Amino acid sequence: MAKLSLFARRRQRVRTALRARNATTPRLSVHRTGRHIYAQVIDDRAGKTLASASSIDKGIEGIGATIKAAEEVGKRVAAAAKKAGVSKVVFDRGGFLFHGRVKALADAARDGGLEF
């Protein structure tokens, strides 16, 4: 078996812990690249995405990979989740550390009405 990178090990550890604690609650999954940030609210039991937002979407303030863009994505994913009837989620940061753009997205989603 191939050795996993530090990022892959961190992502595996985070997702395993989330599934063990909260198998029934939808998860807010965040993916970050050098250019953009993406967020999805996923129902793992049904295997469906309930709401999503990204910095690629039209009308996002800021250019792609900024904290301002991450905050806007957080607000939009919270609004889309509320519209889909979801108010409580678990935050899945994947293998990303909880600071910078990931933290900004989480804080904006909380301000938008999501509980986690």
From TrEMBL:
Q: Which GO terms are recorded in the biological process aspect for this UniProt protein?
A: translation
* InterPro entries the record matches: Ribosomal_L18, Ribosomal_uL18_bac-type, Ribosomal_uL18_bac/plant/anim
- List the Pfam families hit by this protein, alphabetically: Ribosomal_L18p (PF00861)
GO annotation, cellular component aspect = cytosolic large ribosomal subunit
Q: One GO MF term, please?
A: structural constituent of ribosome
Determine the domain of life of the protein's source.
Bacteria
Q: Which family does it belong to?
A: Belongs to the universal ribosomal protein uL18 family.
Summarize the protein's role.
This is one of the proteins that bind and probably mediate the attachment of the 5S RNA into the large ribosomal subunit, where it forms part of the central protuberance.
How is this protein named in the record?
Answer: Large ribosomal subunit protein uL18
